[in-house]
Amino acid sequence: MGASTLISRILGLIREGLLMARFGASPDLDIYFAAFRLPDFVYNILIAGGIVVAFLPLFSEVFHQDKEKAWQFTNNTLNVFLILLILLCLILFIFTPQLVKLIVPGFSVEQKFQTITLTRLMFLSPILLGLSSIFSSLLQYFHRFLAYGLCPIFYNLGIIFGILFLSPRWGILGVSLGVILGAVLHFLIQIPSAISCGFKYRAFLDWTDLKMKRTFILMVPRILGMAAHEINLIVITAIASMLSSGAITIFNFANNLQSMPVGILGVSFAIAAFPELTKTWAENKKKEFIDNFSITFKKILYLIVPISFLMFLFRQEIIEIISKIGLFILGSSQFDPLAVKLTAVSLGLFCLGLFAAALLPLILRAFFALKDTKTPTFVAILAVILNIILSITFVSLLAKESFLQIFLQKSFGLEAVKEIETLGLPLAFSISSIFQFFLLLILLQRKWKTLKILS
Q1: For helices 354-369 and 424-447, what crossing angle results, to 10°?
Q2: Degrees, nearest 5: CA angle 236-49-427
Q3: Which pTM does this prediction carry?
């Protein structure tokens, strides 16, 4: 799992380097990243916050009792969510112009028009990834991590294909077409393994099924939490759209880079541990549950701390190397030295909360295995509120001469740079991540007095 994720993240670096070189910190890339907001909203609230959270624990429970009913439940889930995703994306497709005006109030009329076009195109992505996520849950249950791990690899290959071969003709639209190609590959690569596990598609649809009702009951609190998180990113995008050109791009590049170790360590370990956590809790093996969680927690922690330190120390070199990847492949680069500097500092600020971001996926899945989605939802909402407040406050402070502005300028050698408001966004993000991590850990500790994570 970790190896496949590493390959995917390396491809992600190549993708980022190509985007840097092809477009630079430009309005085009600001449009591209802003166009993800609504499709990502659908994906995260209905898929990452819904299907992924609810399906696997219930499938595990049913499969343990009756395999035939488990496959029937799978087909019902597949068909129900396909209908829901199409309906939701269709509604958002209609109201995209009005929503884009709220998401990027600082964009020009032409930029808003382009954002609307790309957003509508990329609504195909959550539909494909929604179906794919159900197969992903099956592969996790049956420990088919190789096929599951290939998904993000092919997704990134699709985007890279769009950058190299479609963007020269169609510009940023070509990159968006690459995103759709990547989503198609993400879906198709899992089907053979799912079939080998016993899956057979049936046109079965039953909205009144009790297991489906339980799925929605488990989903609702988590959807609220994920919706809050997505609203947080929308607010960040709206704030960044009113800053200097390239602010959205710089934030997203730094965010994508800090998510590399989170994906390789935090998400990979959490995904690998989730089936066992679900099984041991369903079978009332509480000691095994606690042991699995504690061991995985310590593995992630002992790896992420030194990585965070090294990323912070070599942040400038990391960004320079990535920008040169695109330069090497394309022969030229539009990513200027100032953009490199600001992206490097943003990455450094993200590193402050990297340990928390890497451990959150495991802690969240521990709550999900217990079928407790309310607690992490409540904490997520609090963290989002804190993030929004801090983002607005920090951006305001960095827009004028203040203690925070002087401190960041002296700490990161930015005395000659006047517009550093963008740095308030990753700083706020890190602080809110640390807050969410410690609060969830305290609440999880209260559930078991015997939980000794670091012993």
Answers
A1: 40
A2: 30
A3: 0.82
